[in-house]
Amino acid sequence: MSTTTLLCFHGIGTCREEREPGESRYWVTQDAFQRMLDEVADAPRAGLSFDDGNRSDVDIALPALEERGLTATFFALAGRLDDPASLSAGDLRALAGAGMRIGSHGWRHIPWHGMSDADAQREIVDARAALAEAGGTPVTEAALPLGRYGRRTLHRLRAASYEAVYSSDRFPARDGAWLRPRYSVTASDPPASVRRILLGRFRLEERRNALASAVKRLR
User: Fold this and answer.
1) Predicted confidence (pLDDT) per residue in 123-133, tens digit
2) Where is the NodB homology domain (predicted)?
3) Cα–Cα distance between 81 and 179 in angstroms, integer?
């Protein structure tokens, strides 16, 4: 069975103002990010994505990706398209025009686990429609905000016909799987840690994470 190691970034550079507690923990410095991308460029089976739709995605990440011939999926927030610190409709079109994929991270960056039906409609269905219109490209994939999910969340996403859903469960993703685990990169992760992840140096931990993911799908 073939697998791919998927890395997830959130913000690149400096988090100047946290919009929610602990956000700065998920921002990596520009220098560290460049070195991490060099590791990815040399890895045979690695993938990249960016959550939260921060402006650094287009200002810093896009040029660095293009320089190395890499592509990524950008999971944006529909409710922040008018936020100067976030990706705009024009930014989404620029990313899509550069060969990047646009996915949905919902509307407000709230957990999807335990949502009401009304919230689910807005977060899972309406947000995707708004992002597709803004970016001028189909949106077929979603990333779970804050990594939280359960059986009902996954059922709602399948009912909405998403082709793939991304978590933060930290083990390699089986090629062709619908639910795809990723490794979120944080400010405390040195480039060497990304190299170890890509080389598969955490197999025992990954097996535990895979088991935890299986339990979540049954809740």
Assistant:
1) 999 999 999 99
2) 44-219
3) 26
Q: How far apart are CA 213 and CA 109, in angstroms?
A: 21
Nearest-angstrom CA–CA distance, 98 and 65: 10
Q: Smallest Cα–Cα separation from 127: which of 150, 149, 145, 147? A: 145
**d(C-alpha 133, C-alpha 122), whole Å:** 15
Where residue 179 sits, what CATH number does that domain have?
A: 3.20.20.370
Tokens of 65: 């990706």
What is the C-alpha separation between 113 and 213, in angstroms, rounded?
14
Which two three-digit tokens encode residue 140? 């077929």
Residue 163 has a pLDDT of: 98
- Regarding pTM above 0.90, the answer is yes
- Number of domains composing the chain: 1
Token pair listed for 196: 């170890």
Which of 36, 46, 130, 117 shows the shortest CA–CA distance to 87? 130
Supply the range of the domain harboring residue 44.
3-216
* Cα–Cα distance for residue pair 18/169, rounded to 1 Å: 24
**Cβ-contact 204, 166 below 8 angstroms:** no
